[in-house]
Structures are given as structure tokens and as C-alpha cells.
What we know:
It is a single chain. The chain has 57 residues and is α+β, with helices and mostly antiparallel strands. Helix content is 23%, strand content 25%. The protein has one helix and three strands. It has one helix at residues 20-32, and strands at residues 7-10, 42-45, 51-56. A three-stranded antiparallel sheet has the order 1-3-2, with helices on one face. β2 and β3 form a beta hairpin. The longest helix has 13 residues, at 20-32. The model has no long low-confidence stretch (mean pLDDT 91).
Amino acid sequence: xxxxxxxxxxxxxxxxxxxxxxxxxxxxxxxxxxxxxxxxxxxxxxxxxxxxxxxxx
Length: 57
């Protein structure tokens, strides 16, 4: 059996993209959950290249 834990963050304003504070909160949450350093991070970006959503498992 494989157990996964997802860490996810969404920008408060998807049109503008994620702020540096929101990005830092995502990284801090991942570190608190002992996410492996080698786990890939997936990003959904808006048309301007701003980060709308981040996720790791």
C-alpha cells in the first residue's frame, strides 16, 4: 500500500499570481510536513506566467 500526502497552495488572486509571501508559506508548509527534498513541485500558471497553484505529493 502506498500512502501519499499532498501539500497544495493557491494564489489569493489567480489573475495576478502568487505573492512571495504565499510562495514562502507553501515552502514552510512542505518543510513542516517533512516533504522529501527530491519531491517534484507541480505548478499551474496563468497566461502572464504568474503562479496560480502549487502542489506536491
